[in-house]
Amino acid sequence: DAAARRAELLRRLRAAHPALADLLAATATATATAEPARPDRGPGDARPRQDGDGDPWPARLTAFSAAWAWAVAASWLARTPRADGPANTDGASPVDLDARLDAAEDVLAAATAELAGAKAWKHCLERMGAEQSAALRAYADTVAVGGTLAGRHAERYRQAAREAMEIAQTAVPAWVMPIREVLSTIPAVRDSFDVVIVDEGSQAGLDSLFLLWLAPRVIVVGDDRQCTPPVDPAQELYPVLDRLDALLPDVPAWLRVGFTPRSSLFSLLRTRFGEVIRLREHFRCMPEIIEWSSAMFYRDAPLLPLRQFGADRLTPLVARFVPHGFTTATPAGPRNPAEAEALVAQVLACAEDPRYAGLSFGVVVTQGTAQATLIRDRLAERMSAAEHLRRRLRVGTPADFQGDERDVVFLSLVVAPGDRPVPLTRLEYQRRFNVAASRARDQVWLFHSVAPADLDHQDLRHSYLSYVLSAARPAAPLPGVTPPLAEVATDRPHPAFGSLFEQRVFHHLAGRGYLVMPQVEVNGRRVDLVVAGGRARFAVECDGDVGPGPAEIAR
User: Name one GO molecular function term (predicted).
Assistant: First the structure.
């Protein structure tokens, strides 16, 4: 019966965990002897149980696993020292425990990503039929072989790949490929896909218009304030416009002029559709890095920098003056050897600096390709190939970095005193400088051989150099002001806070040594308190006697 079963389980438990068995037996005895609740009992009268009459264990046992896990964690925590305490029983210091936690979180993130990928492949393979599987393998083989051939043999393999794709296409939910490979592998059948997404649409020329044929819904992502498809500046537009007039006489002139090599897929569609979804939230760059681009090129809808960071970040903007810079002319543009040498030396120094461990590097030259070639050659001579790979080092022009990013970017302004350069003001240069100034996530090094006074006030180089020189300073932990603790009372309003409650919470946090900023603006909203740590920030919302309304809760 139930009593015998309970006794047997208790005996087995006592053999494994006597203390837990004694607790269960004592609780059962207290439950059996507990008197029913009586209305005449006062709050001071003791009872064996205070959580109501009846057997509590059926409800408790449903959460036994969670309670056990909690007890294990509580036991471990009791043996773990405070941040300023001694080492743990296993010899681990608080710093070691933090490192272990970081490593465990990295392993968990990697395992989660691997699991998601494995589940996606499992689902894909389960829904794939035998014919689709064979066609998919045939497609892979024909593409691999056809890529090594030329002439009529290559065309035959491309045709075979397209035929295999007709069968294999539905086996894979999403296909990702460069635009140049779409025509050679995807059959030219209307609405072959449900949706086509074109990334970097501002880099796609008019020869990408065929993508509109492949799906009833097309999403084009681009930015007309960044680099567009390369165009030969010597190419005359008159022959192109004359052919457009002859071949498209029924198309209005204001539409015809858009079908030139100087247009992109994004710009062409932007003029045809009235509503463009503007993505203003910017998560990549430090606020100081993206501020110049936002003010110069997005005045109608400024970008909202939302990059989160801690108190020990790198200085976002660093200007490095090269006093003896000079330029030499080459067919590929000017070269500034002194500036190149200073830049290369700084790249090598950063590669040896522990603060830059694990960060990627990029070098962007704002004028011509000769300076990029010079820097690339010198880095190849003085930096190992393994370090190149570790840093994902790339050297090039702004157009080379379109759609790319690096943690740290080194910019070379190239121009030198006495050059009397032509002011860079055209739309083409605006796009190039916008890209160059916004490729870095954490830090920009600007190497310059001139002062702002040496450049025309309309020159983009003057604007950007002036901005970096004015903004280059040691990194602040947060764009906010932390009032001294002694100036913040708990019973008198302080202008930096929204309520006395905020001030009291600030006192508790700041009194424990935390760096706390009140009323920090984020994305047009204010956070009551922000606690800045070494690598992250923590937001604290202080709701007093009057709680937030539904709209505020939703926000």
Answer: hydrolase activity
**Contact, 302 vs 294, CB < 8 A?**
yes
- As a whole number of angstroms, the distance between CA 345 and CA 349 comes to 6
314-471 homologous superfamily: P-loop containing nucleotide triphosphate hydrolases (3.40.50.300)
- What DSSP letter does each residue of 199-235 carry, written as one string? TTGGG--GGGGGGGGS-SEEEE---TTS------TT-
pTM of the full predicted structure? 0.65
In tens, the pLDDT along 59-72 reads 777 888 888 888 88
Q: What pLDDT sits at residue 475?
A: 46
Q: How many helices (H) and strands (E) does the chain have?
A: 19, 12
DSSP code, position 82: P
3-state secondary structure of 290: helix
pLDDT in tens, 472-504: 655 444 445 567 777 888 888 888 888 889 888
Burial string for 365-374 (b: 16+ CB within 10 Å, else e) reads bbbbbbbbbb
b/e per residue 321-336 (b: at least 16 CB within 10 A): ebeebbbeeeeebbbb
At residue 41 the predicted structure's pLDDT band, cuts being 50, 70 and 90, is very low
* Locus of tokens 């051989």: 449
Extents of the domains making up the chain: 1-30, 100-172, 314-471, 485-554
SS3 label, residue 411: strand
Tokens read off for 146: 């056809």
